[in-house]
Amino acid sequence: MAVAREAAMYGRREFGRLVLSGLAALPALAPWPAGAQATGAPNRSLVNGVQFGLQPFCYHDLPMIPENRGRLIERLVQNGLGMVELHATWVEPRFAAPGVSARDAREQLRHWRLTASPEFYRAVRREFDNAGIAIFTYYVNINDSHTDAEIDAMFAGAKVLGARGCVGSQGLRVTERLAAFPGRHGMFMGVHNHANLSDPDALNNEASFVKALSFSPHVMATLDTRHYTAANGDCLAFLARHHARTSSIHLGDRKRNNGRSTPFGEGDAPIIEILRMIRDNAWPIVVLLEFEHGTLRRSVDEVQLIFDYCKRAVA
Amino acid sequence: MSHRSSHVLLAGGALLMTASLAAQSGTPPGYNVEFLGPPLADPVMQYNKESYVAYGCAYCHGVNLVPRGEAPDLRQSALVGADVDGSLIVKALRAGFPTTTKLSPMPQYADVSERQLHAIAAWIHYARQRDRYASLVRGALPPGDPAAGRASFQDACSACHSVERDLAGIGRKYDAAALRDQILEPAGLRRAPSFTLERLRDARARDGQGRHQRLLENYSPAQVAHLAAYLQTVR
């Protein structure tokens, strides 16, 4: 079996350390009882024990800017979703403008982050709370331009939003630097993979995830099933081995061998089996729906199709 | 298994229905007109556009080639500029770009039919031409250098045109702005697509249209200004 084969790739000591650190982090993860909802009611997209949410990048016809946050919330409610991974661009002001250099815009954003009041983030959280939507994670693209104080400020803001962690697609080198931050805030740092097998620093396969997870028990996997499949990884084997260190999955479909994104069920990602595995093992892994395949439909209609597909899978 | 099969059928059926309906004049229910724009009058180009969108190209490169995220801007791509009838684009789509310094490599589309890959390439060219046309006619024509325009003419136009024959005296006929319009989109080539045998057999017109379209998507504002300045001297 693939799980046993992959288990043999790691030494007993390293495996034990990963499992133990995962267990240590586990209490911080159960996403639904604590949720961020003021009502305390069950989250509307908790389906047969599987907590669904959305990576709203796939509302590709809705630019991810603060001005569209109200429409984002409306769409999430329309799709019956009660959890979201919120990209920072939905929250933070934009400073890029004609006549403003990229460097000046970057400095202004840094200054804003360092001086933004908790009340600003509380007000944003209220918008989601009022609609019964929990912000599970805050998606941030952190790189070498971020100062330590700025990173701390981003985690602090994310915490006020109700997020359990921050997530990003940074490489291993930056992840190693970030590993020290989430613990200070009682949060985790989710590492998200892509399918770039040509970059030795990239999160792209199981070995790179294991490396990233070894940096700190507060680093967690955000397994993107599309990219992992396109990079010829085995999602089921990954979850079997690393479920305790997996905070969420970005659930979508793609073909292997760097193949294209497809509608759910048309590619090589074992979507139904992944969902059943999470349900049957009662793993507290949040399933964030995401699609990148093309569609002529409105994206809110496409999200409904893929959510319905998943609901049938865990029925 | 049944989930997967039924979804494929549903998705495929919906796509075919949407595509055929969109090719008609109305906007079909569920068609994302806000994002995709109204269906085009030319059903073949609409098919090309829908192929481009349905295979996910728009997700990164944008419906009208305004990229999202880290995707390259196809409006400025040298590969697209050098492509003739899909010769380079189709090859690139089949193989993808597995090696990259960016987060995500471009996927390969080896499972997609030759016809659909060519449809994707055709939309990329069309959208690039429309975008370049819009940017080149925006604002007043800058002053051009007739000598540089003469060199451009020799290089790009003289295989088909001559200032002593078909373009003799053109500088008397049109002002600079009108010349710009003629350079970008000659009136004779603006005809609606037709499948009459007469038109299909008109290889000269078809070849001319293709050449002008390739020129259009690669023109720089300075090049157009120089050409217009040169043609104004042809009196």
Summarize the structure.
The complex is a heterodimer of chains A (315) and B (235). Chain A has 315 residues and is α/β, with parallel strands linked by helices. Chain A is built from 13 helices and eleven strands.
Report on this structure:
The complex is a heterodimer of chains A (315) and B (235). Chain A is of the alpha/beta class and 315 residues long. Chain A is 41% helix and 15% strand. Chain A is built from 13 helices and eleven strands. Chain A has helices at 2-7, 12-25, 31-34, 69-78, 102-115, 118-130, 148-161, 172-178, 206-213, 225-230, 235-242, 271-280, 299-313; strands at 46-47, 50-54, 83-87, 134-139, 165-168, 188-192, 219-224, 246-251, 253-254, 261-262, 286-289. Chain A has a nine-stranded mixed sheet. The longest helix of chain A has 15 residues, at 299-313. Chain A is globular and about 45 Å long. In chain B, helix 1 packs antiparallel against helix 3 (43-54), helix 6 packs across helix 7 and helix 7 (114-137) crosses helix 12 (203-218). Chain B starts with a helix and ends with a helix. The longest helix of chain B has 24 residues, at 114-137. Chain B has helices spanning 2-23, 33-36, 43-54, 57-61, 78-82, 89-95, 114-137, 146-156, 170-173, 176-184, 197-200, 203-218, 221-232. The radius of gyration of chain B is 21 Å and the shape is globular. The relative contact order of chain B is 0.10. Chain B has 235 residues and is mainly alpha-helical.
